[in-house]
Amino acid sequence: MFDIGSTELLLVAIVAIIVIGPKDLPRALYKVGQIVAKARGMARHFRTGLDTMVREAELEEMEKKWAAENKRIMQQWPTDEGSTDATDSLAEPSTDVTRIPAKGEEAPVAGDLPSADPYDVSAPSSPAAKDGSAV
Predict the structure, then answer these.
(1) Which of 11, 39, 74, 105 is in Cβ range 3.0-4.6 Å of 101 for a Cys bridge?
(2) CA 97, 103, 105, 106: dihedral to nearest 10 degrees?
(3) What is the reported pTM?
(4) Residue 92's closest CA among 107, 81, 103?
């Protein structure tokens, strides 16, 4: 930032000793350090604010692009029911899902599966219950 060489720094130190005096020089350097620290903090705060504003502007621009792309895709691939919400097709489970046997239960054979809803609790779940005997 500043191109200060060793000779210029030595000259500033000599002038400071002469003008301020050796007795008050440490206190003056401490105050200068505090002022420099405050200036750096203000600059960092300002830079962070600018970075946040730029990030928010970029995010708004990306949201607009994503919305336009989503609209284009939804027009290209409309849903069967005419709905614009893609999650509507996920609301009902498909009926071709077979029931997963519980722990300790035998896996059903293709002929053992009831023709009704596999999640129906009234459907028999074991071969012993099919013939009407008590479980």
Answers:
(1) 105
(2) 70
(3) 0.41
(4) 81
